[in-house]
C-alpha cells in the first residue's frame, strides 16, 4: 500500500507517529481532560503546556527544544488546536489540542488527492456560503476548471458528506471538521507557509523501486566482501587512542575550542587574524610554526613552512628532492593535455642520467619508472614520488625539526596579543574588504599579488 | 524493468561520454531537460519495423526495438534460483565480514574518552546572515581565502559572496533548477555547479564588467541523472562528481574528458568527500543504498564499504587526520567510521532527534562534529564522548548544507529558508 512505502521513505514520519502514540498512552502519556468549547464538551484534549512538559520529561531536553519539537508535531498535523485550527502552532499554555486520527496521518494518505481537495472546498463553500479565503478560492476556481467534467460527482459527494455529518453529535462534528481542516492545512498550506511535506528531487532509494539487482551486482558485492575479509585490520583501542592524541594535540590550534589571537574575525569584526596568518607572511605565528612539527604533511601544506624546508634542504644539498615531489604533484593534478609534456620535462630535469637535478631513487624503483615512462600517464611517477616523499619524511624532516633554523623560527615567531574588547560593540565600523583571489593574475609562486583592495563594503547583515 | 535498463545503460554509457547524448525519458521526471530520440527502422534482432533505441552488447552498438531491449535486459535472469542463491551467498559473506570486523573491536570510543576533559559551556551565535537567494539554498562551499563562499539554490541562482562583508560579488543563473552541488576552485578563480541538468559546469570568476560569466561557462561532467555533489581535487584541473545515476566520476576540466568512473553503489550517490591524506588518492561517497564506500581514485576500485545506516546517507566528511569519516543520514543519526579498524566506531543520536541529518562537518581539531538537520536545527556533538554539546536554533526551514571554514574560525549553514548563516 502506498502509505506503507511512504513511511519507509520518510523515516521521520514513523518516528513522529511513535512519539504521538506514546503521548496518548493512558498511564505514561500526556494528561488529557475534557474541554468545554462553547456549549459542547470535547473529551481527550491536552493543553499545549502539558505537551511541552511531557516532552521535556521524556527526552530530558530544554524548554526551547521541547517547544520546537512540539511545534514540528503540530506543523505535520499530528496534533491540532481546537480553537484556532487555522494556524498550526503550539502554544505552551492551556490552549487545547487533540491528537489527529491516524486516518488523516501523512503516512496514510500521501499525496493528497485533488478530488478530495475539491470535495473539501465544495463542502466549505456550501456550508458557509462563499467564505472561502483567498488561496482557497483560487484553488477552488482552478479545480473547477480542471475537473469540470466530474464536477457533478464532486458536488454530490460534498452534499452527501455534509448530510451524513448532520446526523452526528455536535461535538463529533466539530472534531471531524477540525481534523479535516488540519489535514488540508498540512497538505495545501496557505501562501507564505512553507510546505512541511516538500522533499526535494525524487530519489530512487527504496529497494522496492529497483525491480531486481543483476547477477553482476551481486558478484561484485561478493568479490568486495572476499577482499575485505583478507584485509589487515587494526585493533579498535589503537585507532581510538589515535583520535584522543590527534584532537588533544590540535585542540589549542582549533579556534572553536581555544579561541584565536588577536580575536576571531567573525566575532570582533577585525580581520587582523587573517592578515597575521596570511598564506605568505614574513613572520609566521608561534602556533603556526608549532604545527609544522605535527606532521610532514602539515609542513608541506603551509607555503611558508615549505619555503623554509626548501632552504634547509638547500643547505643539505638535497633540495632537488622537494622540487621533484612538487613537479610530480603538478603532474598528478594538472590538465590531461599537459601530461605528456610534464612527464618529459620531469624526466629531463630529474631522472635522466646526468640530469641537472638528478634525484637519488633506488635502482628497482628507477627501473620500473623508466619502464613505465614508455607509456606516460598521470600516475606513472607515483612510485618514484612516494619513494622521495618517504625519504624526506623519514630523513630530512626530522633533521629539520632538530635544526637551528627551525629553533630560530620558533623563537622569532609572533604571539599576537589579545585584542582589547571595544567599549562600544555596537559602533559600526566599515569592514575591510579583501581582494578576491579571482581578481588578479597569480604570480609565478602561485600566490595572488598584493594590490589595492577591492570595493568598499556596504551594509553588513546582522 | 525500466530501472534495470537505466542501470545497465548508465553503467555502459559511462565508458563513452560522447554517446550520453542519447538520454531517455523513463517517466521518472528527474530532469527538466529530457531528450527523446525516435529512430524508426528495422530491429537488429527481430527485424521488425519499430521505434528503435541504441543498445550496447559487448562494446558493440546495436539498435533494438523496445521488446527486444527488454528481453536483453532480463538476459541471465531467467534462472530465478541462481539470482536468489547469489543474493543469499552475498548476505552470508557480509555476515562473515561483520564477524571478522567485530573480532578486533576491544573497546568503545566513549570508554576510551572517559579520561578526556568534558567540554565547557558552548556559545556560538549567528554572526552573519546572508540574504539574497530567492529560493531554497541547497549547497555551499568556502574559498581557500577563508571568507568567500559560493552558494547555490533551487531557482538556479549561484552566488559568490564575501561573507565577512556580506557583499555579493558574482551571480550566475544556471539553465536548470535544483542546483544541488557547488564547489569553489582551490585557486579561488572558478566555481563549479550542477544539479538537475545532469551536468557539472565550471565558471571562471571574472570582474570584467564587459564579460558575462555565463559566456565562459565550461561543461565538464555529463551524467545520466541529477548531479548531487562535486568537488575539485587539489587543483583547478580536476573535478570529482557524484550523481543520482549511482556513479561517481573524475573529470579533466580543460577537455571535459572522463578520467575515471566509480561504480558500485546500488542507488543514487548523494555526497562525497576527498581524503586529506598525504598520498591523497582516496575519497568516500555515501548514497541512497545506505552504504558509504571508500574509493581509490587511481584504479576506480572500491577499497572499503560500510553499511550500518538505516536510511539514505546525505553527507560524508573525513575526520581531519584522514583515518576516519563521519556520515549523516535520514535515519536521524550521524556515525563515525574508522578506516584502519574497518568498522563503525560511534553513533551520534538522541531520542528527541527525529529528523534526518542533511550535512555534517568537523571542527579543525576534530573534537566537534556539526550536523545540520531537517528539523531546522544544528546539533553540535562531542566526537570523542559521543554526547551532544549544544543545539543551535535560528533557521526557519530545514538546514540543507553546512561547512566549517578552512581555518576553523566559523562554520556556515545554508537552509531552505533562503538564507545562509555564519556562526562563530
From TrEMBL, chain A:
Keywords: Signal transduction inhibitor
UniProt domain DEP: residue ranges: 26-101
One Gene Ontology term of the molecular function aspect: GTPase activator activity
Top-level lineage group: Eukaryota
Segments of skewed composition (Low complexity): 433-445
Region (Disordered): 433-462
Family matches, as Pfam families: DEP (PF00610), G-gamma (PF00631), RGS (PF00615), RGS_DHEX (PF18148)
PROSITE patterns in UniProt: DEP, RGS
One cellular component (GO) term of this entry: neuron projection
A biological-process GO annotation: intracellular signal transduction
Domain RGS: 295-410
Protein name listed in UniProt: Regulator of G-protein signaling 11 isoform X4
UniProtKB/TrEMBL annotation, chain B:
UniProt key word Repressor: no
Range of residues in the leader sequence: 1-21
Pfam families, per database record: WD40_Gbeta
InterPro entries the record matches: G-protein_beta_1-5, WD40/YVTN_repeat-like_dom_sf, WD40_G-protein_beta-like, WD40_PAC1, WD40_repeat_CS, WD40_repeat_dom_sf, WD40_rpt
Coiled coil regions in record: 83-110
GO annotation terms (biological process): signal transduction
Family matches, as PROSITE patterns: WD_REPEATS_1 (PS00678), WD_REPEATS_2 (PS50082), WD_REPEATS_REGION (PS50294)
Keywords: Coiled coil, Repeat, Signal, Transducer, WD repeat
WD repeat boundaries on the chain: 130-162, 220-261, 262-305, 306-347, 359-391, 392-424
Subunit comment: Component of a complex composed of RGS9 (isoform RGS9-1), GNB5 and RGS9BP; within this complex, the presence of GNB5 stabilizes both itself and RGS9 and increases RGS9 GTPase-activating protein (GAP) activity. Interacts with RGS7, forming the RGS7-GNB5 complex; within this complex, the presence of GNB5 increases RGS7 GTPase-activating protein (GAP) activity. Interacts with GPR158; promotes the GTPase activator activity of the RGS7-GNB5 complex in absence of glycine, in contrast GTPase activator activity of the RGS7-GNB5 complex is inhibited in presence of glycine. Interacts with RGS6.
PANTHER family: GUANINE NUCLEOTIDE-BINDING PROTEIN BETA G PROTEIN BETA (PTHR19850)
Protein family (similarity comment): Belongs to the WD repeat G protein beta family.
Role of this protein: Enhances GTPase-activating protein (GAP) activity of regulator of G protein signaling (RGS) proteins, such as RGS7 and RGS9, hence involved in the termination of the signaling initiated by the G protein coupled receptors (GPCRs) by accelerating the GTP hydrolysis on the G-alpha subunits, thereby promoting their inactivation. Increases RGS7 GTPase-activating protein (GAP) activity, thereby regulating mood and cognition. Increases RGS9 GTPase-activating protein (GAP) activity, hence contributes to the deactivation of G protein signaling initiated by D(2) dopamine receptors.
Protein name, per record: Guanine nucleotide-binding protein subunit beta-5
Gene transcribed to yield this protein: GNB5
